[in-house]
Design a protein that fits this description.
By secondary structure, the chain is of the alpha/beta class. It has 22 helices and nine strands. Helix 2 packs parallel to helix 11, helix 6 crosses helix 17 and helix 7 crosses helix 13. The N terminus is likely disordered. It is found in: Membrane.
Length: 674
């Protein structure tokens, strides 16, 4: 028989790692065994590895991976996180876009209410505008005290929780979550209205345009949009400059200094309501929407250049001055030119057409207005996921909100915000006037809780250290915003505020239920090092086993004990997506005096399943065992709905390991009690 040379033999097919295909003869098969050096792991010390990004091998997985890369971009390492320190000029652009954008619709909402009583009610426009400016001054001065007390930054949730307790903190968080949802809905709807005012042919598509805008903002933030001062500065300062220019032209036209106004042909509707105190208060509550976003500077103090607190206080003061002057200037001109709100055109567009109709500057004003409004919506895409992260960290929201995606963005929070906001915009027809009644309740409730927290904070300093001036300022702020909250809740109740008034306690109840579940799980899984040493016993071992663990608790310890009962050597592996968790695990491991080696895989791209599969394959190759058993700890909740609060890591890992040859996967369930 003539021997077959290697050149004449059948070439080995190209296989994915661990893939199996039949050979030419019955019983033949090819298996690709990947050398340890080819696995996506880099050694970083004894029993410590760093995981590289992984890619799926199956066709569906590769297609989804390609779509994600196209839409979102390449994965970013945790070390690539950018932390830009902002000057006052850039910080004003970053933190004021939400507040300044409200000038595009606040005056219009005041007039929309007053016009119900006829043109005679316009006599109250300027007093209401002055009242809103006074309220703005009180809130700005109050938040300057918050910055003084929390120079490292203190969001409303944290400040309220620290000073008033967990329950008021949850009320503040629920109010803020609804506020962020409504910020996106109102801002995108108003931005689309600015566009359709300039291009009438797009008016029938305003709902579709708003949903598309929200979708694009969602994708952009999933890519990891940075709060870069340079990026934010252009649309913010373009809006400020164009609005001040428009106000200057309006003042010149009023004084007869060479500017001829072109009155817009609008017709006031027939009066349908009597001019009552209730109607005036309702108009005031609509105008109070101008204050949304004022708290942003106090939340972002750490982003400022040193001295952070002083720069933040100065920036907040400038933001208040700009916001107050723009709002009142638009209000005065709208009153002077007798502008009437309509569904077809925004008030700012009417004002611009009255003063500069037919000129390119009209389109500059509309473009700048749309830009600042879409920018305001984008800030909520940064704030909502950040607050959801803090709530998930404190076990008040599902753990999924804690984790950053491929691009260092809190993907779960961004996606939830995009979906909920799109549904709300569709339900309300992308109408700003239909959304405003829902808006201000949560904003002023958060203001009230934050300022009340500051009163408690100053009081706790004790005699001799208590700054009475700051305490008095925050007390006035708390009392004022509390009254405004009651006014808004009362006057807007039947117009939609009842939805938010019911939603906030409902959200608090859901968060408390989630927290109770997580505490119940933690109590059942908690295991002290002393108890581990007492329970550990020598057992016979026959084969090798790997036990992936997230932490050392009753479920993972039971899996380790089971692995020791079947294996000749056992290795525990931990994938680190949050570096601070490593120290806690290593400390507990040493305190428990476990003789099982612990391998840590650092995952700078925050992947979990890919690095786990890679380290398991690596250990399989290094141990040289024909078979290896992966023992997966998993706990089983008492109720089916509780599974939604957990990340289903065990199930995902079992699926990923199903196609790896010479590997046995065993789950060790730990059943949780009621």
């Amino acid at each position: 028989m003539t021997p077959i040379t290697p050149e004449e033999s059948e070439p080995s097919p190209q296989l994915a790692p661990g893939a199996t295909v039949p050979g030419t003869h019955p019983g033949d098969r090819y298996i690709r065994l990947v050398p340890a050096a080819d696995l996506p792991l880099k050694p970083a010390g004894k029993n410590v590895y760093i995981a590289e990004p992984t890619q799926p091998e199956d066709s569906i997985g590769r297609a989804w991976y390609a779509i994600k890369r196209l839409l979102i971009g390449r994965p970013l390492s945790t070390a690539e996180a950018a932390h830009e320190r902002l000057s006052k000029v850039k910080a004003l652009a970053v933190f004021s876009s939400d507040a300044l954008s409200s000038t595009a619709y606040a005056t219009e909402e005041i007039l929309r209410v007053l016009i119900l009583a006829g043109m005679a009610a316009y006599a109250f426009v300027l007093p209401i505008g002055l009242a809103v400016v006074l309220l703005l001054a009180i809130v700005v001065i109050s938040y300057r005290q918050t910055i003084r007390a929390y120079p490292r930054g203190g969001g409303t949730y944290i400040v309220t929780k620290d000073n008033l307790g967990a329950y008021p903190g949850l009320v503040a968080a629920a109010a803020l979550l609804t506020d962020y949802v409504l910020t996106v809905a109102v801002s995108t709807s108003a931005g689309v209205a600015a566009v359709t005012s300039a291009f009438e042919q797009l008016r029938p598509l305003r709902v579709e345009l708003a949903v598309v805008s929200i979708t694009l903002l969602t994708i952009a933030n999933l890519r990891g949009v940075r709060e870069s001062g340079t990026i934010f500065a252009l649309p913010t300062y373009a809006f400020i400059a164009s609005m001040y220019a428009l106000l200057a032209i309006g003042a010149a036209a009023w004084l007869g200094w060479g500017v001829t106004p072109h009155p817009v042909a609008t017709h006031a509707p027939e009066p349908t309501h009597a001019l009552t105190l209730f109607l005036v208060l309702r108009a005031f509550s609509s105008g109070s929407a101008a204050l949304t976003g004022v708290e942003a500077v106090a939340d972002g103090v750490p982003a400022f250049k040193p001295p952070e607190a002083q720069n933040a206080r100065t920036t907040l003061a400038w933001m208040g001055l700009i916001l107050g002057s723009l709002f009142f200037g638009i209000t005065v001109l709208a009153y002077h030119f007798h502008l009437v709100p309509t569904e077809e055109e925004t008030l700012v567009s009417q004002l611009a057409r009255t003063l500069v109709d037919g000129s390119p500057f009209y389109y500059v004003v509309q473009a700048a207005t749309a830009g600042i409004l879409f920018l305001a919506a984008n800030t909520a895409f940064a704030d909502f996921p950040r607050l959801a992260y803090f709530l998930a960290r404190d076990r008040f929201l599902p753990h999924q909100f804690r984790f950053q995606g491929d691009r260092l963005a809190f993907s779960a929070g961004i996606i939830v915000l995009g979906v909920v906001t799109s549904l709300l915009v569709i339900a309300r027809g992308a109408s700003v006037s239909a959304l405003i009644p829902l808006y201000a309740v949560g904003v002023f409730l958060a203001f009230t809780l934050s300022q009340s927290s500051m009163v408690v904070h100053w009081w706790r300093l004790g005699e001799g250290r208590r700054p009475w001036a700051s305490l008095a300022i925050n007390a006035v702020g708390a009392a004022t915003t509390a009254v405004v909250t009651l006014v808004i809740a009362t006057t807007k109740f039947v117009h939609g505020a009842w939805i938010v008034i019911l939603l906030i306690p409902l959200l608090v109840g859901v968060m408390l239920a989630i927290n109770q579940h997580y505490r119940h799980v933690a109590d059942q899984l908690r295991l002290s090092p002393v108890e581990i040493r007492r329970r550990r016993r020598p057992v016979p071992r026959t084969v090798a086993a790997v036990v992936p663990i997230a932490s050392l608790n009753r479920a993972s310890f039971r899996a380790l004990e089971y692995a020791r009962s079947i294996a000749r050597d056992v290795t525990a592996v931990h994938v680190s997506t949050e570096p601070e968790s490593d120290d806690v695990l290593l400390k507990r491991w040493q305190e428990a005096e476990l003789d099982i080696p612990l391998v840590i895989v650092e995952s700078p791209y925050r992947e979990l399943i890919g690095p786990l599969v890679a380290i398991i394959e690596k250990l399989h190759l290094e141990k040289g065992c024909p078979y290896i058993t992966v023992v997966i700890p998993e706990f089983v909740p008492a109720h089916w709905w509780e599974r939604l609060l957990h990340t289903q890591t065990a199930w995902r890992l079992k699926r990923a390991l199903a196609h790896v040859p010479d590997l046995a996967v065993t789950g060790v369930p730990y059943h949780l009690e009621e």
